Amino acid sequence: MTPLKINNCYLITLILIQVLASCSSSKCDNFFSYESRSLDIKGLTKKIESKEKISNLNVGSITLKKDFVEVSERLKELDILQYSLCSQLKSFNGTTEEKNALIAKNSETIREMLKIAQQSSDLPESQQNRLLVGYKQELSSNHQVLIELLKNTEIILKYASLIADTTCLRNKRIKILSTLFPYQNIETNVKISPRDLAKNAFSEIVSKELLKDSLEIQKFTLVANSISMTIDKTITTLKSLSDLDRTRYIINESFWISNIDKIQRISSFDAMKFQPIYPQMKTLRNSYDIVYSRVIDYFISIREFLSPKNGIINLDSLDKVLTSERFALDLIATYSIELAESSKRIKNIIEEITTQN
């Protein structure tokens, strides 16, 4: 039997039964083209959509493939039969019982057509297994890439948090520093803007006359230089985790692209799970470069703030560094969660394929 491509057969069956039950008020159609030996899904969709509502189903929510599929001789015979039955119903003048019998026979014909189509659309089991093995290998390779990205992200987050935390920028023993970098800026779901935090910080420094305290200024200068040197070393270390030229962490989709037309013909496994996974993996890979770059920008902004070229720290420069800090830390935290969740989903799919085989 020639393979077919057709989906949602049971759903389509229910809809067609309702359509054919009302044949007396609608045009009878052949669903198959005998010359091209194809099934006109597009025409069938239009026929279904000719009803505003069918059996309490919102037809606007029903999605059918609109391409053509090859058909067998048996489907051709059944199509002739359903057309004949529909024509009889349009001009039928017999009893209600006789009409119901015709409707039932017509419905059964449609069910058999779609049953054959569904069975014929499946690939041979051996081919399905080979496809699943191929998908598993490609997913496993990509999954390993995501694991590496997650490990790198955790390292990046560790360094960023170390600089932002109480051991460096928010060291309470350095009053000027801890005032300029309020802890609120790195708290989750903080509502006050970095600009307002910067204004409050400068107001507090003035009110406490910290810039008139020579000891505090000396402590700030020493620690600021130390943090700047730490940042330089950190940036050098983080460069080993970068892949801006896309040569180390590669999401492979060659098998997916080559076999995407066969995915809907795998009946032994819900292969449609593959469909959203590949775009997700590519997005996560692209996001890694963005996260890495934003964190580097954050470190650079701190170094520039603590060692300004003009020797002056002002409201705008503090606003800039606090904004960069909040954006970088929020971005990397969100990205870490997305990476972990996607990695878990892919791992589960790989385990399902392994169990299937």
Automatic annotation (TrEMBL):
This is Lipoprotein. The lineage of its organism: Bacteria, Pseudomonadati, Bacteroidota, Flavobacteriia, Flavobacteriales. It comes from Flavobacterium panici.
